[in-house]
């Protein structure tokens, strides 16, 4: 699937031609995992609301350095730390992530659900 997506975007670039430009970086995502991450939303409506106004702002943008939603390989290494450690990372802030991941009113259970969703992409 990622291969088809990559081919598709390469084709689109070729067709759009020089005017639009197809360089990496900037806001135009060329990373298939990044493009895929933008379509993923938690099935639970309330969790989706929280996700959309907080985690999504970074975890669908590779340039932030955040592990992308649905990038299961990258998340595997994070999950290996254990869920409690990951929840602590969110609560306390971690690297480029501010404390509470920008969700000040989230509780630990919500963080856990959000992490599980991002790690699996569903
Ligand atoms: C302002 C950007 C930003 C927001 C908003 C954000 N994150 Fe992050 N997150 C990051 C970055 C950047 C990293 C990678 C930090 C690193 O590895 O140095 C990260 C890493 C993580 C990690 C891995 C921590 C670890 O110990 O490896 C988890 C879990 C996580 N985020 C969960 C969340 C959740 C849940 C939300 C929403 C409530 C959220 N993030 C919102 C930027 C953000």
UniProtKB/TrEMBL annotation:
Domain of life of the native organism: Bacteria
Listed GO MF terms: electron transfer activity; heme binding; iron ion binding
Record-annotated Cytochrome c domain positions: 47-118
Keywords of this entry: Electron transport, Heme, Iron, Metal-binding, Transport
PROSITE patterns from the UniProt entry: PROKAR_LIPOPROTEIN
Entries under Pfam families matching the protein: Cytochrome_CBB3
This protein's name: Cytochrome c5 family protein
Organism lineage string: Bacteria, Pseudomonadati, Pseudomonadota, Gammaproteobacteria, Cellvibrionales
